[in-house]
Amino acid sequence: MAVAALLFLALITTALRSSEEQTGARKTGRTSLKDNKLMQRAGASDAVQELHPETTFIDDFQVARASSKAFTWKRMGAFTFAIFLGLAVALFADTHLFAIKRNVSGLASAEACRTVCRASPQGLCDDAHLSFQKKFCTTTGERCSNSANGSQPMSRASCSFSEIPEAWKVDFVLISAVMGIYLIVEGVSAELILFGLSCIYGFLGIITGEEAWAGIASGSVIGLALLFPIASAIEETGVLDTAIGMMLGSPQSFYVAFFRMLVPVAFLSAFLSNTAIVTMMIPLIVSWSRTLGVHPGKLLMPLSFAAQLGGSCTLIGSSHCLVARDSVDKSLYTLTFFDLSYAGTILSLATFGVMALCLPFLSSSASPVPSVSADDADAVQVEKENLYTISFFIRPGGGYVGMDPELASLQLKRLPGVKDIQASGEFSGQLEENACLSCIVEDEGVVSLRQMRGLRMTNEAQLRALGMEREKRHLYEAILSSNSRIAGAPFEFDAMRHAMGCCPIAIKGKEGMPQAGDILLLEADERYVGGTLWEEEFSITKMVPNSSPRRIGGVHDRVRCILVCSGMAVLIVSVTFELVSLSIGAGMFVLFLVLSNAYTMDSVYKTIKVPVLLTIAGAGGLSLALQATGIAKFAATKMTQIAIPLGTLGVRTAVYLLATFLSLFMNNSATVAIIGPMLATIADSTCAVGDTQCQENSVKALTHVMVFAAGTCLMSPLGYQTNLMVMQDGGYTFGDFTKYGSLIQAFHMVACVGVVFLFVDILNL
User: Fold this and answer.
1) 649 shares a domain with 533
2) Which of 187, 317, 464, 670 is the most exposed place for a label (fewest CB within 10 A)?
């Protein structure tokens, strides 16, 4: 009952926390700042964040209850099921099913081993559960036997016995794990749930304090954290844009184009962030699909699938591969850099073929290309007073040279914050080099258009004059004060650059000379913003998020590109040949980037994804708790008993189905961290006692199956972040993923088990 009460309190707290937005959105009787006429007149309605009064816990509780979202039938049903499951285990389950093995070293005899076992209150010390072995080995430890001889002078003793975990620990971990996984499925942050559970387990003594924090200290987690800034530095060089543009080319056949997209995406995803690759590829594929005369939906879902397949081909392709190396018993198998590459490459190519054959099942997404209606155009004109008008040139040699103006306009208007695009001048049906595009945009639209390699701003020369430290420059919206010396006269670019470290780009809602009260869009050095002169000229300033200019195009940028790409190649070679560990090698590479001014420490901090790291670290604590209470062994044993009649391939298929099922609802790294510790137990049940080679081979095969299954979630947009990223541009529904992805997932399962059998069992690769 104490466990139930504690978890019920946790449920209430989580429910109230998830209802925080509804709490802040309730009616307070005040006029919103966005509806305040005075603030609108001052042009500050978008620059001020609405504040909410302080509330008590009772107020939050009442609002959460009234919102009807804190306590739903789903949540109460899941909670009831978790409690029922815990009670059923406590009342009816045989406690011996959860017995775990404990190994003790340094004992000289069987009697000493039995004495240690009896000292444990939960120890099982009968002959069926206690084992003592003494072997004699050579000084190098390579050859051992049960009897001593002259060439084997060293003795090694091993003592192992079974322990039954305390019943309350089993119940608590089981109930909390079920509720935690359910809350993650419902959308509560995975890092909060998993890391919180890990800390609670450490506090209650279910795992040790060192084990609770072991995930953060893991070399794989540290290596993953350092890979984030490395991937960002490579993306920042722009070399990927150029490489992908060359790989895509201009094919005449759709199916040729289809495979020319899949192969480079999978290859790049094997070494770089899948999310970064898909983010960069979406606008390119949207434009490319229109030149091919097909709907983007025919290419974007396969784009996401290809990134997932490629991410499982190397150790650094995706975070779940690094987690697999840490969660699997290293005494039986340690995943190396290219272990997954042989099977992963064949599996990816085979799956590409099935993806092409199943394309007709994507027909529901192949709707006509949306067009801009007259009403939309009128709406843009009405809203123009709250937008910026900015001109961009077509960059020579860029992807927009030779494109139809209407097609270019349709593509660019899909970018966030871009409202309208008009080509200035006369064209013979195609855009020419240095052609001018007049763009009506929000502040976010300026950021989006500046990311397009084929465009450049008309005042690019003035912006470059602001200096080389582009990571310290951002876009700002600033309101001219009543006594501003800038008002009433044309912009003096040199004076503004020297005095305030900024360059004007546009005036909101108008063109011409600025006046007091106008909102200016500026690019400025953050070190000047807020200074005395700046405060005299501007009354309110707001920074546009993620608006630093791209670091490409200059001589220094080319040198930096060479340094970053060469360093990445050296890192891959060094880790592959085990000259250095991933964490140390990545750390040295990041240090090199910072010292060579190729990257800054501020950028390193910004690119490290803390939620991902906490999720992985927390999942490790949950896995250790599942092992310490015997739940992992119990689940693995039961799953193996069900699958064992089907043989080795049946067991591997069961692992695939389990990993795929969990990945549909939760982070794939968390899935691997939960399943990984079970693999040694599963392997034991499929091999003879003492057959070490069979156990090692079985764990290796099961690890590969688990990684491929957890990293390839095709049946749901919730299973992988790249699936969600392509939904809007592809026009997909949830059912589209189910219809198209389920067929490919079924083939992937069969091919995965077969390919792993070929490369691990037969070819021993």
Assistant:
1) no
2) 187
Residue 626 covered by a domain: yes
- For the chain, how many structural domains are there in total? 3
Category of 154 on φ-ψ map: left (φ > 0), alpha (ψ -120 to 50) or beta: beta
How many whole angstroms separate alpha carbon 410 and alpha carbon 417? 14
Q: How far is CA 47 from CA 27, 526, 618, 664, 759, in A?
A: 22, 17, 38, 40, 59
pLDDT at 24 (0 to 100): 43
479 with 47: CB under 8 angstroms? Answer: yes
Query: Are residues 495 and 549 located together in one domain of the fold?
Result: yes
The whole domain housing 139 covers 100-163
Choose the final residue of a domain: 163, 181, 207: 163
**358 in the same domain as 377:** no
For the entire predicted model, the pTM comes to: 0.66
Residues 548 and 399 in one domain: yes
CB atoms within 10 A of CB 646: 12
Q: What is the DSSP string of 281-334?
A: HHHHHHHHHHHHTS-THHHHHHHHHHHHHHHTSSTTSSHHHHHHHHHS-TTT--
389 within some domain: yes
The set of residues, in sequence order, having a beta carbon less than 8 Å from that of 297 and lying 6+ positions away, is: 362, 365, 366, 367, 730, 731, 732, 736
The amino acid present at 362, given as its one-letter code, is L
C-beta neighbour count of 35 within 10 angstroms: 10
- Dump pLDDT digits (tens) for 143-164: 566 665 655 555 677 788 888 8
Same domain? 306 vs 267: yes
